[in-house]
């Protein structure tokens, strides 16, 4: 157990540029400022000394909030610990006990533990399970790579809570590829981000060309140059284009199905829905009715439709080719 | 051809397992290899999890231990697709070959090859199982969670299985392999209900995606020898893989197959296309960065696994079945592995209502009479 001394220090004496023990730089102090203003600083931060200066071990938000409130001195625990690895365990375990880490924070924890000399065996067998990650070398290495990602990507990934798989895939791209795609990715929701990243990665690997080459060619380039589109609209169009390139047969099948369906001139109360990815031969027909009379009306309509020759095209939209 | 077992550089033995004759036989056949006694399989799993490529490294080690549970299990098949009522015997797990698409990379917790040494329990369980199922025909084999013959030089299991099943006339027993390790088989007297099966692919796919496995022409030659000896043989075109030029390459292999193998002695040919659970895609991408097989157009099937978009599978199956039929396999029983009724109907013009019907179709076939 490390020695801790409870004392009061000037906030100005803390070297906040020294971030060796910081797990996440992506935080906001607004809510904490309000809380400290009302109730004071209830939980003293932990600091230690490096090169004769006070450095933060744990409590970055608290110290920054106090600074924002111009509080001249605050109560702290001063930790008498010269080994970085031992000092770093304090914020790691303190945070573990109160919240879940984002993948970006987990990556920072793993890389710092590694940098402070913790053995890979301990990181894998002791820390990864604590971080709710599979205890394998592969996962440890992946987190170290994730922590090396550019700051802008890490900040978005942290704030939007990107999943491990998406981040891991990002590490397999070149920095140029990542930066080329990032403006679009950040505009999308989580699932769409994952989809775009995966699809573009796979198209690029299949065709053996870089993501930049894909983004700067044909329809992709047109979308980016279109000044009538908002950044979010561009991102959405890029996502759909990437999907079409990744799944050309499925996309053309879907398009053909929609065309057949459109040509049937169905009333809006009747919808024909294919199975997911057309894997099942069954087609669902959805009927929206308010009463018996409507049911009878649309049942007749369905009967009339079933006698149409074109209806069989729904089961194989390309059979007329 | 280097025998697959020669890549075993380390043997782990679970405490107390040396008493089993099979453990002693394996150690004797392996020759000088470092041996480590362990208390529990978990120790090995933890050790290999520390490595950069546990799956790859695991192929260089063998764990000898008794199986505490059941050796015999129904083949899990996959939900929402048609099964064939097959039973699997889990004697050896994992495999020294390193196929890109292998599900075992993802499926098995322990990356090390495992040989279950309590064969006394195996025979007891088999006796009990066959008695319980005495009223029906059984198709059973060992090639589901490992290659049936990859370790046969050191375990010599094939001899014991053939001896055991020879008299069990209501059972079709299948040894399924990609190897040409048939020395033990060729020393045995054939039996009508013992089937030796090979997984086949195109030569290009075997070379690129089946690391450590023999060339397909060599597998066909091994099958030829085994058939000549009088055994029935079977083939599994699974997984069929789409790539530029697949049509001609598969045709070439099918052509070669029927130029060497007497179709009347083929018990069955199964057909299946590349499919795998989504997490395996990441594993493949990392372990085989040059492989292109995961970048074809694969979508989520009814079972959630990734498989080729259905119209692409239909085209693939149509061509393969046409080639098998036209190259000499007109009367050979064909079946699909993990496919839908729709595919059966559209390609084979059959629509089995259940896995029992598939089983009946495959079990009640006329037997091959060896000359």
Task: Report on this structure.
The complex is a heterodimer of chains A (321) and B (371). Helices cover 55% and strands 11% of the residues of chain A. Chain A has 321 residues and is α+β, with helices and mostly antiparallel strands. Chain A has four domains: 1-98, Conserved hypothetical protein from pyrococcus furiosus pfu- 392566-001, ParB domain (Alpha-Beta Complex); 100-160, no CATH class; 173-246, no CATH class; 263-315, no CATH class. Chain B is α/β, with parallel strands linked by helices and 371 residues long. Chain B has one domain (65-363): pyruvate-formate lyase- activating enzyme (Alpha-Beta Horseshoe), CATH 3.80.30. In chain B, the strands form four sheets. Chain B has an eight-stranded mixed β-sheet, with helices on both faces. In chain B, strands 2-1-3-8-6 form a five-stranded mixed β-sheet. A three-stranded antiparallel β-sheet of chain B has the order 15-17-16. Chain B starts with 9 loop residues before the first strand and ends in an 8-residue tail after the last helix. The model of chain B is unreliable at 366-371 (pLDDT under 50). Chain A binds chain B through residues 120-121, 124-125, 135-138, 141, 165, 168, 172, 202, 205-206, 246-250, 253, 276-281, 318, and chain B through 46, 49-54, 282, 285-286, 292, 294-297, 299-302, 309-312, 340, 342.
Layout of secondary structure:
The complex is a heterodimer of chains A (321) and B (371).
Chain A: E1 3-10, H1 30-39, E2 46-50, E3 53-58, H2 60-68, E4 73-80, H3 84-98, H4 103-115, H5 120-130, H6 137-147, H7 151-159, H8 164-171, H9 175-185, H10 190-207, H11 211-215, H12 218-225, H13 231-246, H14 248-263, E5 270-273, E6 284-287, H15 292-306
Helix pairs in contact in A: 1-2, 4-6, 6-8, 8-10, 10-13, 12-13, 13-14
Chain B: E1 10-14, H1 21-30, E2 35-38, H2 41-49, H3 54-58, E3 61-65, E4 72-74, E5 87-89, E6 92-93, E7 98-99, H4 104-107, E8 113-116, H5 119-132, E9 138-141, H6 152-155, H7 157-165, E10 171-177, H8 183-186, E11 194-199, H9 203-209, E12 210-211, H10 216-229, E13 232-240, H11 246-260, E14 266-273, E15 275-276, H12 278-287, E16 298-300, E17 306-308, H13 310-326, E18 334-336, H14 341-348, H15 355-363
Parallel strand pairs in B: 1-2, 1-3, 3-8, 5-9, 9-10, 10-11, 11-13, 13-14, 14-18
Antiparallel strand pairs in B: 4-5, 6-8, 7-12, 15-17, 16-17
């Amino acid at each position: 157990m490390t020695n801790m001394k409870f004392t009061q220090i000037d906030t100005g004496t803390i070297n906040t540029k020294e971030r060796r023990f910081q797990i996440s730089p992506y935080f906001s102090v607004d809510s904490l400022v309000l809380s400290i203003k009302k109730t004071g600083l209830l939980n003293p931060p932990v600091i230690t000394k490096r090169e004769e200066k006070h450095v933060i071990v744990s409590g970055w938000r608290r110290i920054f909030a106090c600074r924002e409130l111009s509080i001249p001195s605050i109560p702290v625990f001063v930790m008498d610990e010269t080994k970085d690895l031992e000092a770093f365990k304090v914020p790691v375990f303190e945070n573990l006990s109160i919240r879940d880490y984002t993948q970006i924070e987990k990556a920072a924890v793993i890389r710092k533990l590694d940098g402070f000399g913790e053995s890979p065996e301990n990181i894998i067998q002791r820390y990864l399970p604590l971080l709710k990650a599979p205890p394998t070398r592969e996962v440890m290495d992946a987190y170290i790579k994730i922590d090396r990602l550019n700051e802008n990507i890490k900040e978005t990934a942290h704030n939007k809570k990107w999943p491990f798989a998406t981040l891991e895939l990002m590490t397999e791209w070149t920095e140029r590829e990542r930066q080329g795609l990032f403006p679009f990715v950040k505009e999308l929701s989580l699932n769409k981000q994952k989809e775009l990243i995966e699809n573009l990665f796979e198209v690029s690997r299949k065709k053996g060309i870089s993501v930049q080459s894909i983004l700067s060619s044909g329809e992709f380039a047109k979308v980016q140059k279109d000044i009538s589109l908002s950044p979010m609209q561009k991102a959405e169009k890029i996502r759909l284009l990437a999907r079409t390139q990744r799944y050309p047969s499925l996309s053309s099948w879907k398009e053909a199905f929609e065309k057949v369906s459109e040509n049937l001139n169905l009333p809006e109360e009747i919808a024909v829905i294919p199975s997911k990815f057309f894997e099942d031969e069954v087609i669902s027909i959805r009927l929206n009715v308010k009463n018996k009379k409507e049911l009878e009306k649309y049942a007749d309509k369905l009967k009339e439709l079933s006698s149409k020759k074109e209806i069989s095209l729904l089961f194989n939209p390309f059979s007329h080719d | 051809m280097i025998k697959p077992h020669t890549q075993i550089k380390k043997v782990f033995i679970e405490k107390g397992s040396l008493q089993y004759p099979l453990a002693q036989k394996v150690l004797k056949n392996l020759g000088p290899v470092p041996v480590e006694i362990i208390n529990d399989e978990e120790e090995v799993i933890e050790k290999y999890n520390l490595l950069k490529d546990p799956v790859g490294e695991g192929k260089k080690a063998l764990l000898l231990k008794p199986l505490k549970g059941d050796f015999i299990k129904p083949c899990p098949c996959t939900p929402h697709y048609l099964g064939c009522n097959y039973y699997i015997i889990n004697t050896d797990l994992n495999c020294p070959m390193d196929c890109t698409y292998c599900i075992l990379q993802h499926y098995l917790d322990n990356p090390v090859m495992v040989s279950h040494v309590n064969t006394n329990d195996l025979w007891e369980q088999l006796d009990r199982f066959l008695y319980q199922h005495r009223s029906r025909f059984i198709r059973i084999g060992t090639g589901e969670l490992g290659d049936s013959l990859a370790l046969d030089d050191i375990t010599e299991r094939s001899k014991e299985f053939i001896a055991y099943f020879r008299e069990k006339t209501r059972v079709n027993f299948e040894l399924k392999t990609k190897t040409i390790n048939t020395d033990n088989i060729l020393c045995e007297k054939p039996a009508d209900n013992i089937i030796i099966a090979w997984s086949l692919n195109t030569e290009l796919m075997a070379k690129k995606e089946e690391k450590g496995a023999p060339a397909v022409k060599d597998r066909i030659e091994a099958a030829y020898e085994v058939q000549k000896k009088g055994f029935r043989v079977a083939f599994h075109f699974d997984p069929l893989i789409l790539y530029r030029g697949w049509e001609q390459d598969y045709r070439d292999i099918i052509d070669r197959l029927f130029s060497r193998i007497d179709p009347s002695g083929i018990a069955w040919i199964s057909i299946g296309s590349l499919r795998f659970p989504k997490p395996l895609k990441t594993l493949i991408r990392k372990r085989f960065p040059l492989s292109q097989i995961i970048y074809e157009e694969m979508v989520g099937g009814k079972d959630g696994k990734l498989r080729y978009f259905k119209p692409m599978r239909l085209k693939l199956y149509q061509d393969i079945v046409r080639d098998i039929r036209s190259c000499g396999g007109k009367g050979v029983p064909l079946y699909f592995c993990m496919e839908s009724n729709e595919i059966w109907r559209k390609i084979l013009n059959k629509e089995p209502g259940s896995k029992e019907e598939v089983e009946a179709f495959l079990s009640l076939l006329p037997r091959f009479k060896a000359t």
